[in-house]
Amino acid sequence: MGIGEEGEDGGYASAVDELNEQQSRLPHRKLGPLRHLSRSISPPPELFAKVNNKTTSNRVPVRELPPSTGYSRLLTKKQLADMAFSVRDLSKYLGTVKIKMRVRKILIITKIWDKATIIYTNQIVDWLLAIHEVMPNFTVYVEDVLKENELFNEKQLLSVDKSRRDRLKYWTSDLCEEHPQMFDLVITLGGDGTVLYTSRLFQRIVPPVLSFNLGSLGFLTKFDFANHQKIIHKMVDEGVIVSLRMRFECTIMKAIESKDKTTTRNLGSEILDTVESEVTHEPGKTYSILNDVVVDRGPKGTMCRAELYVDDDHLTTVEADGVVIATPTGSTAYSLSAGGSLVHPDIQGMLVSPICAHSLSFRPLVVPDNAVLRVGVPYGARTTVWCSFDGKDRIELNEGDYVTISASRFPFPMIQNKRLGSDWFASLRETLNWNQRQQQKAYTNI
């Protein structure tokens, strides 16, 4: 088990025991080890026995959904609230203790198109393979495309010691997708984009992530690579502080062509299940995102029109260049540029920020993390809209299509430098220069 040993101020296992005792009244919500968090807050089995339940986001029978579709959007309001409560409680506790890690398998993610970063990757791999006395019997995984890379120089790394041949291995995206629980630690070498790529790579279970800043901004990368040896030694000797960052689970719902050509279809009635008829939508791909989901006009030169629903209520009609739905982590990204508020990552919420809204009264707002948001293209809309997830995988939404957004069961565990989110305040000042200006001069007495 990668995490679960006692640390300086208590361990993860004791935190889990305490929370389990407090939450024993919540069925199927007991908290297991961090990398198996998905098991602790998965939906209860009885949910899958229900068909055409009014609490689901559409009229597709639950048991017919493929495993890749995701489940958060299928939870009842209470079940989603219980899940959010479990994650919040665990996140709060982990922010106040240090967890000692027993590291056996380390996965390194680097910017493979940046020559300097590949050289740094060679340096850290060489050092990790050399420190038997600190972390014996462990394996380092690097991306398979580096195997033949001259700058990474596999031949030089393996020539030092024969045992290195068994302890240097290569990962692929398929390996990370199919066996995420096999890794005890992820080290990223790059910037914020590398961290987002890590989130994209691990769509379900995410190992603890230690991020070294080798990028441009570095808002999410807390550690200086120049001190990587000291930082890793300290992490092993004293333990780490883990922050569970909220992620979204987003599912594309595609409209099914209706057999009844005479009836005018209404997106709101279909989303809220007020129409007793045949199945109206089928689920597409599901994405777990760390920053934001953006619904915008795409290449069109005119504004887009989309309907925004919160739970069972129609919130508003979006007539703008688009709308950003962001996590607290994503509040410092596109959402901030669109006029959204800065939100501390320990505040679990969902940020809604319009992009160049046609109405001046359409202002940003924050909704609870146990809400389910749906953004869709109404029937009769003049144009389609485009949807992107953490800036990737742009998908066109046609008439009747919508995207469902809810809190994910798989948060993103980031290793922090300081406790209680003080890292975040430091990043505001140092990377965004938040509220930096020349101080007002004092009066001069003549």
Word description of this protein:
- By secondary structure, the protein is α+β, with helices and mostly antiparallel strands.
- Among the domains are: 100-238, 3-Layer(aba) Sandwich (Rossmann fold); 248-407, Tumour Suppressor Smad4 (Sandwich), CATH 2.60.200.30.
- Helix content is 24%, strand content 26%.
- The protein has a six-stranded parallel sheet with strand order 5-4-3-6-7-8, with helices on both faces. A six-stranded antiparallel sheet has the order 11-10-21-18-13-14. A six-stranded antiparallel sheet has the order 17-16-15-12-19-20.
- A hairpin with a 2-residue loop joins strand 19 (385-389) and strand 20.
- Helix 1 packs antiparallel against helix 3 (77-94).
- It is globular, with a radius of gyration of 24 Å.
- 43% of the residues are buried.
- The model is unreliable at 1-71 (pLDDT under 50).
